[in-house]
Amino acid sequence: MGRLKLQSGINSIEEEPEDSETTSSNNAALACMINSEIGAVLAVMRRNVRWGGHYVSGDDQLEHSLIQSLKALRKQIFSWQHPWHTINPAVYLQPFLNVIRSDETGAPITGVALSSVHKILTLDVIDLNTVNVEDAMHLVVDAVTSCRFEVTDPASEEVVLMKILQVLLACMKSKASIMLSNQHVCTIVNTCFRVVHQAGTKGELLQRIARHTMHELIRCIFSHLQNVNNAEGSLQQHGSSIKQLGVDSDYNFGGKQLENGNGSSDYDSQPSSASLASNAPSGLVTGMDESTVRAGNGKDVVPYDLHLMTEPYGVPCMVEIFHFLCSLLNVVEHMGMGARLNTLTFDEDVPLFALGLINSAIELGGPSICQHPRLLSLVQDELFRNLMQFGLSMSPLILSMVCSIVLNLYHHLRIELRLQLEAFFACVILRLAQSRYGASYQQQEVAMEALVDFCRQRTFMLEMYANLDCDITCSNVFEELANLLSKSAFPVNCPLSSMHILALDGLIAVILGMAERISNGLVTMEPALVNLEEYTPFWMVKCDNYGDPDHWVPFVRRRKYIKRRLMIGADHFNRDPKKGLEFLQGTHLLPNQLDPQSVACFFRYTAGLDKNLVGDFLGNHDEFCVQVLHEFAGTFDFQDMNLDTALRLFLETFRLPGESQKIQRVLEAFSERYYEQSPQILANKDAALVLSYSLILLNTDQHNVQVKKKMTEEDFIRNNRHINGGNDLPREFLSELYQSICKNEIRTTPEQGAGFPEMTPSRWIDLMHKSKKTAPFILSDSKPYLDHDMFAIMSGPTIAAISVVFDHAEHEEVYQTCIDGFLAVAKISACHHLEDVLDDLVVSLCKFTTLLNPSSVEEPVLAFGDDTKARMATVTVFTIANRYGDFIRTGWRNILDCILKLHKLGLLPARVASDATDDLELSSSDPGHAKPLTNSLSSSSITPSVGTPRRSSGLMGRFSQLLSLDTEEPRSQPTEQQLAAHQRTLQTIQKCHIDSIFTESKFLQADSLLQLARALIWASGRPHKGNNSSPEDEDTAVFCLELLIAITLNNRDRIVLLWQGVYEHISSIVQSTVMPCALVEKAVFGLLRICQRLLPYKENLADELLRSLQLVLKLDARVADAYCEQITQEVGRLVKANAAHIRSPMGWRTITSLLSITARHPEASEAGFDTLLFVMSDGVHLLPANYVLCADAARQFAESRVGQVDRSMRALDLMAGSVGCLARWAQETKGSLRESEALKMSQDIGEMWLRLVQGLRKVCLDQREEIRNHALLSLQTCLTGLNVDEICLPISLWLQCFDLVIFILLDDLLEITQGHSQKDYRNMEGTLVSALKLLSKVFLQLLHELSQLTTFCKLWLGVLSRMEKYMKVKVRGKKSEKLQELVPELLKNNLLVMKTKGVLVQRSAVGGDSLWELTWLHVNNIVPTLQSQVFPDQDSEQSQPNHETVSAPNDLVALEDGHTGV
């Protein structure tokens, strides 16, 4: 039954006994103390005449028995030798107690006796080791609670009452108090309450002491509840022989209420005019006798039996006392204690006193109440019902106390009070905290304070959401409370008040709770979407384990999903019932084939349905609707419920139709269900039906204003005769029904919508029924299980509310509160991946920085320094950007707007953009090149350039501007305030760490990085065609481009993500710019820098990067001209650093195109050629991919007349030297590749060679003699050099070479000689000679291979025709002597070699010899005598054959050598 376990402090009684000397010393001291108390009592008695003389009885003179007993005790005390605890306390207490009980003693004497007893109790003379301690304690309580005394004056009476309180409290605080019985403890509390009651007519001091003592008693009693042993009924005494009671721990309910004063009620009836109880009603008895208020379920609270009440105290007395305290609230409600002048009769006083005591009991009893069903039942029903009523009290004091109790109950007992807490918030807090329900400002404030206290409990909102918002049968308490807080924080057309700040505190407490939970556990990713694949009855969804988050989290999410869908379904139903049901079938909340039960449960459990439509549906005569009606009635629990209560609950859920047939059907279904569950009085369901009808009629009669003559009670009873199976129903039963209907109308047209209903008695009874069947309370630990869902609901209103308060606030503490809220919102949004919320927050915050406002003030920097709110907002924006940038999307635009404004004001560090990337080049560049942010902030040496403060100054420059005097326009020295404002601005910008956004961009998530890049492009504006943008716009565009390039370089691993946007932006700048400017300069060199930095890391992107450089080729001529040299230098650096990484023809085409352009630019050509030299020298960087391109670039440098002739010759040498590469590749190809690949490679090499010699051919036409001749020499090297043999060129390629290179070269030179003046082309004769010798040499070198070809004749005729033309050419108007000599000689050599090789032989074939004939046809035109020289008559031919054959080629070689210098 629950006894208290012995406290550890009491164990000291088992220690070893003290030695005899100590014992005798202690005995003597205690004897002296008691002796002095006896003396004190006797002294006061002697002052009274009655006690001063002797009583005469017969001849004997005797003293009064009171004095005799005191004197007898005096004689004994010093003679006791035994240890004190072996002496029966009754011996030394009884004389004092007799004085207290005596009605002959006056108040002073009684007071002194009470003081003596108090002293004995407080000195711990009596403890658990003392013999007969139990009897002694009972004696003391009985005596003090039966105290009698004569009243001499009011003051002395108050003193006695005060001492009674002291002694009773000392009894309860004594170590021996656990020996008191349940009954005695009740008596002590009863007596104490009666003193409180009497004190109402006495002095203020006594009133206060009495109330304080009552509080102390309650604390003392209920503090022991945690020590109660469930197996027994009371405080458990160590080693006690008290028998255990075999009482069921659930306690036995039934029977009439026992009076707590049962054991000692005789003192109430004694007629003494000066007793404690003479003019006071008995407290506990008054509260617990016949006038006891019935409990909420209509039953009286059941007493404990007498045997249990005499056991050592424990749970039984606590139940009695707690019930008494609850009944005090009922007493005020029902008794209305008259208008006597008594402080307790005022409306506020009694409930406040009772609530204070209840609060003390709960604070100390706390969690232990759960273990005792009777106590728990009192809390759940009677206490909470009263709290609901007093919660709506007009008194702020009462409301405040009620809220404190509910907060304590939430802490200790929330798992048992799920529905009660819901009702309290819905019917009390949410009603009172809003003015529209008629609450006073004080009520609103107290309700709001209470709500904020709840919000400060870290798991409160989470548990409300999980247990109530996610339950289809409960209201959305979390959502309503969050909305209330955000609305209440909004100052609408009024200044900020304490109420707004209070609501804000609550809102931020909830948000901080969520933010704290994120730190406590891993945040799960965005919850998986709930999707109902098939129909399952939504009202039967259950959770396997309410204690395991892995089970209950998905379960409550599923329930919330169902609840939301039901609400949408209700909305559809209200517009069109048929479509509403179809919608729910589509979402699998109703079966495809509708059944009555599922529709009934939809009507029963869905909030927001139109009750008229539900009533019409249920009243319909259609068979399906009738089945739904009966299933609907079956969802109600009418167990042990009065008929009128049941009918009220039933008719609250829909509007009773007006037609009688429909009413009949509805009431039949109701009656059947009611009779099924509560058949106690009614004989059958027909009786229930008739009586229900009768109640509806009575209700209409009593509450319809049109009915003038109202039905009396007798009429009602008479109308209901013989309805109970032919018999009458009990008159009291009908009378009670009549009174209930008269006092409280049954509303047949219930209010539409959810709202915040009042808690009526019938609703409370229904709540108690539901609470017995409700699902377990989900207790949450501090992990963020449902925060994503909750935050998604409240984030919008929360950000809006905090923003409005921040906007209206004027105090720094409020600013800081708002900032804490903003940062918490940011943290939650980021951790739960709610990017939209974070963007909204950033947008909202950026408005408060004032940086986006049109600048109307003269000195915006000073204004910013003076504006605390703006500075705090600015720091917060950048804190969020740095901490949670991963989850910012569109918000980057607003952040960039702020950065740009700071840039325009000159408040940014000078190198904020380039810091991001320069760190990477520190090792290879000038050490001073990249100054960290702190340096540029703190270095006071930075001074602004005159006229351009924005670009060059940076933050410190701006600051020093203020300190310096302008030379043109003298200004006064800045004031201290201005200096302080600047200092504050400087510190603010330092705190922002703006540079980190860009330097740390490599850690940003891909989506965020992309949005940041897009925001930079957007912020820089669209480039305008022409040069008509303002300098300020251009400055902004340049700054944005710098930042864009910085983040691009910082994210080289993710360049694919950014590249397209960056390239398009730079492209638009390049193509829209027609004049040199900073923006296009930054664009071009930024592009080159990106390519330089990224090529080594992104080989797969090399082509893409290099192709982008083609933008440089698209530059407007004026722009290109301005930057050509620098561009070329950058390209040079690029090539030198990354030549090995450029492998594709496309990449090299871009590079060589850029280099080729520079060939004709005075400043750039040197750098361009230097780069080409790097690529082509030694052939290290020449590749098949770039060979032709480089050769072509070298040709352009050779042809270029910019720079020295020497450079053109070097270019030609590069071209000629490159043949070595071709030879090397050809050799490598033979050994390493498969046959097909080798063939392909050989063809490619041949093609490269042909392109090379074609290029040289073009240079051979150069106007400059040195270049022409050097080009011809180079061409000769390429056609006849040693390397050419290694290449193994196919003969077909040589044919092409003759057609495309040699013949065309000769033709072109001939044309130039004849068509241009000698001034343009000097010494063409020498060139013609060299060209002709080249022709002859190549022809002879290849004669053997060529002669095998079918087209040889054609080729030979081509050679002859050129020689013929050269023979006839005129140089300076006359034929050239050199050519006249050279042509015959060369021709003769050729003919001789052809003869020797057997190529030119006269064949006597039929049809003639075409080669022979054609040869001589042409030769005779050139040198007619040559045939006879080469083919003389037969004799001479025979006489010197060897000489001719051998010498001819040698002569030719000698001839060539002789003409080399021409």
- N- to C-terminal separation? 134 Å
What value does the Rg take, in angstroms? 56 Å
Overall mean pLDDT score?
81
Structural class computed from helices and strand pairing:
mainly alpha
- Count of individual helical segments: 67
Oligomer: single chain
Low-confidence stretches: 3-18, 236-275, 277-300, 333-345, 918-969, 1434-1462
Number of strands: 6
C-alpha geometry: elongated
Give descriptors for this structure.
1462 residues, mainly alpha, two-stranded antiparallel ribbon, elongated
Q: In brief, what are we looking at here?
A:
The protein is mainly alpha-helical and 1462 residues long.
Write structural notes for this entry.
This protein is an all-alpha fold and 1462 residues long. Helices cover 64% and strands 1% of the residues. The strands form three sheets. It has a two-stranded antiparallel ribbon. Strand 2 (55-57) and strand 3 form a beta hairpin. Helix 15 (373-391) packs antiparallel against helix 16 (396-413). The longest helix has 27 residues, at 20-46. Mean pLDDT is 81; it is low at 3-18, 236-275, 277-300, 333-345, 918-969 and 1434-1462.
SSE layout and pairings?
Blueprint: E1 3-4, H1 20-46, H2 49-52, E2 55-57, E3 60-62, H3 65-77, H4 89-101, H5 107-122, H6 133-145, H7 154-173, H8 182-199, H9 204-222, E4 228-229, H10 266-269, H11 283-288, H12 306-309, H13 315-335, H14 349-365, H15 373-391, H16 396-413, H17 418-432, H18 441-455, H19 460-469, H20 477-489, H21 498-520, H22 549-575, H23 577-586, H24 596-605, H25 611-619, H26 623-634, H27 643-652, H28 660-677, H29 685-703, H30 713-719, H31 731-743, H32 761-773, H33 787-808, H34 812-831, H35 835-848, H36 860-866, H37 868-884, H38 891-904, H39 915-918, H40 933-938, H41 949-963, H42 976-992, H43 994-999, H44 1006-1019, H45 1031-1050, H46 1055-1072, H47 1078-1094, H48 1102-1108, H49 1110-1113, H50 1117-1138, H51 1145-1158, H52 1165-1176, H53 1187-1199, H54 1205-1217, H55 1219-1232, H56 1235-1259, H57 1265-1280, H58 1282-1287, H59 1291-1315, H60 1324-1341, H61 1343-1347, H62 1352-1368, E5 1370-1371, E6 1374-1375, H63 1377-1396, H64 1410-1422, H65 1426-1430, H66 1434-1439, H67 1441-1458
Antiparallel strand pairs: 1-4, 2-3, 5-6
